[in-house]
Amino acid sequence: CRQPVIIAEISLDNPSRGPHFTGCRSREQETFRCWWSTGIFQNLTQPGALRVFYQTKNTLEWQECPDYTPTVQNECYFNKTFTHIWTSYCMQLRSVPQNITYDEHCFTVENIVHPDPPIGLNWTLLNVSRSGLHFDVLVRWAAPPSADVQMGWMSLVYQVQYRVRNTSHWESLELESGTQQSIYGLHTDKEYEVWVRCKMSAFDNFGEFSDSIIVHVAQIPSKESTFPTTLVLVFGVVGVVILLILLVFSQQQRLMVIFLPPIPAPKIKGIDSELLKNGKLDQLNSLLSSQEMYKPGSYHEDPWVEFIQLDLDDPAEKNESSDTQHLLGLSRSGSSHVIHFKSDDDSGRASCYDPEIPEDMLTASLLPGNSGRGDQHPLVSRSSSSTPSLTALQTSEGAETPIKPTTPSWANMDFYAQVSDFTPAGEVVLSPGQLNSPPEKKKEDDKKIKDDVKIQFQLLSDGAYTSENTARQLAADVPSNPGPNQGYQTFPPQAVEGNHGWNVEYLAPVDVSQMPYLLPVAPPASILPPVSDYTVVQEVDGQRSLLLNPSTPQTSVCTHSPNKQLPAMPNMPMGYLTPDLLGTLTP
Amino acid sequence: MPSLNMTALLVALLCLDPHGRVGSAPICMHGPTACHVPSLADLFDRVIQHSARMHSLSNDLHSEFEQYFLPSKNHIGKIYRKCHTSNILTPNGKENAQKLAREELTEVILKLLMAWRDPLFQLHESMAHQQDFNSFSSNKALKMGDMVHELRKGVEKIAEKMRVLGMLGNSIPALSSREAMLPVSESEEAMSDYELLYCFRRDSNKVQNYLKILKCRIIPEHDC
Q1: Which of B94, B95, B198, B204 to mutate to test the interface with A (most CBs of A within 10 A)?
Q2: Can you give the residue ranges of the Fibronectin type-III domain (chain A) (predicted)?
């Protein structure tokens, strides 16, 4: 029977204090004991100096301790007779001779019950884990014999604790009302220490721990070692990783294509890029030539190169509306000898007349040697005698006798026509194909006629380009020819040669340098002999002015004999002087 | 008549639910033979479990009260408080209880249980109105009142059964007259909540132990 030496139940005792109760305990709720200490008072150590008196609610007077334990010092024992459960007790520690009450302690018995520790603690092995590292045990014990649990006078609950041997931390399990409990998860090859204690249910005072027992299970060396399994697993994982790396490196290109698709390169339609890299030159040439854009001779789609192509084949077609009429928006009623312009590959054919062309067609002297005066100009539509005069831009209804009233004078002119005069109103007068009688030229114009304004010029290039200065200069040089009902001044008919029907007027030659355009000019201050509408630049003087060759008009201009002064002129469009040819002209 | 009384008793016993649940026990319509009739031992076990639970609840509530409201202990004035059930003579020890007659023991139990019906109701009301207690504590007080009520009913049933079985020689006055059993409080001053809790904790422990002793005496078991 263990007796606690110091019972720290009520409060922490101050060692320097005097005599005091150290605690009272009951083990089975039937008896109880009280202990006290003398403290620092050494003169009270002899027995009998201190006496314990108690008082219960039932007995109002103080009674002395019924039994001072003889074997134990400073202990008062209350047997069953003096123990009243559910009764309040008050103890007093007195020194009778001095009549001093040193300490007082009150309680009820059921609150000081500390059951005895359970007995018969033992353990049995439940199972061992498959790895052999853990095991479970079942711990059993018995109730303390002092506690009357059969009748139920004390209802006990137990608490099991265990720890690894020689360590300081105890693991506590939950309260158990039975007398057995399982402990799970113990490690083999470790020694465990297990003990148990109890307390009354619904009360807070635990008893002392029982004697501890040692739980130990030796580790059984398993036949199936886990080491190779782990090793195999590790090697397997490493091998898989190596395989993946090798796969990635071997299929690097394909993976790059999959994950990083290349940007498509620009392609030429119809041309394989590989052929461009590796093909031979012939193949490339054939390939490129098949492309439309690289065709050397095809200038159809090229808007920058315009070639005036003359079609002199079919006279029957000339009866149709010319392009000029279409251009001018007028309808013509029959005009023969209209040269149509067709797109023709042979762009250089314009300088030659087709033999089918009637004689009364004007021809221009394009080539050197041809004065072009009065010649028929192939680009200019020649008008027959029946054709109305084309000198007047403005048509007058009445004055036109042989002129068809509805047809303007220049209606039957083709696309290119020579601008012969400028009306004061600023309109362009195109020269007709034939020179008609002056009366034919007479036009009743409603517009203002200024006698001093006579602008006569002869545009010898395509279109009617001239500068205003040039027009004035030309007007100054041209003698006025007051003519009734003449808004323009024309040269005397006698200047016109031939019956070509051309009222050829010419421009006063001016310095070329003053003109932005190349115009074939005649020598100034002189009545120039009638020249054809288009004149070939014959020579360039020292002042870099172009000189026209006022040679006699020739009927045939289809002379390809080169001028002695000028180099051979290849087939070229009428009136064009390409820059490279200009360079060949020498003053 | 015994069969009718037995039937009535069995119906009443079947309605007894020591855990406070209502209407969980089936009603035997076809007589005692058709249903499983709990034995007296089972009834005692139920009642004892119920009383243990009641005492545990009172202990918890008392500990909470003591922890938060009363700093000091073991004061004489505190210990010597008067409970309203102090005038009920109760055995103060195991031997004394064992020496007591069955009828007296049963009567003591019933007296105690009856004495606590109203005070516990007052305690619950008092705790519910005070803001110092949380709802959990006031619910415990309410539950204690219900448990006392149920426990009293169960003990009455047991007593009735014992009387029917002839175990009880004399009639129990507690069963007959209810009015005389109400304790008369000697002091007019109202008891505080802590005093009520302290007293009830003690009395619930008494009831639990008395029931165990009674069972051991009524139903002979080993080492009892």
Answers
A1: B94
A2: 117-220
